[in-house]
């Protein structure tokens, strides 16, 4: 994600490390594995009225194997169970991620020119969850 952060805000190692560490302390984080190996992580945060997908990272060589779909399906299931809308932020320049989230049912609700806020449309989650249950 360094390229997207750099293009949007510039890069400062100390600031990024501090922000990442703070973010991980704010909510649950789970390592994503595939065939016994670590290949990413998913981080979410339950707030009073919403569920935030803070970060979903799959190492590039493991992408396009439905690993991210399986990981987000669990967060979508939690959103449904808690009856809270699921939100996330994505860099506008990260078109691969933006387009993927759109395909699985997220819609844009805010755009500041650098980051888009997306919310999962209520009717979108059951299909993806069934495929990866």
Automatic annotation (TrEMBL):
Keywords annotated in UniProt: Transferase
Coiled-coil intervals, chain numbering: none
Protein name per its UniProtKB record: GNAT family N-acetyltransferase
Gene3D superfamilies listed in its UniProt record: 3.40.630.30
GO molecular function: acyltransferase activity, transferring groups other than amino-acyl groups
Record carries keyword Secreted: no
PROSITE patterns: GNAT
InterPro entries cross-referenced by the UniProt entry: Acyl_CoA_acyltransferase, GNAT_dom
């Amino acid at each position: 994600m360094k390229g997207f952060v750099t293009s949007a805000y510039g890069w400062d190692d100390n600031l990024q490390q501090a922000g990442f560490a703070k973010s991980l302390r704010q909510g649950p984080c789970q390592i994503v594995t595939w065939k016994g190996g670590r290949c990413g992580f998913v981080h979410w945060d339950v707030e009073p009225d919403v569920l935030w997908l803070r970060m979903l990272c799959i190492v590039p060589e493991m992408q396009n194997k439905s690993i991210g779909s399986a990981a987000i399906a669990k967060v979508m299931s939690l959103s449904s169970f808690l009856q809270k809308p699921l939100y996330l932020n994505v860099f506008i320049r990260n078109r691969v991620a933006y387009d993927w989230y759109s395909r699985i049912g997220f819609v844009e609700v805010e755009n500041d020119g650098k980051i888009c806020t997306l919310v999962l449309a209520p009717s979108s989650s059951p299909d993806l969850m069934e495929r990866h249950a």
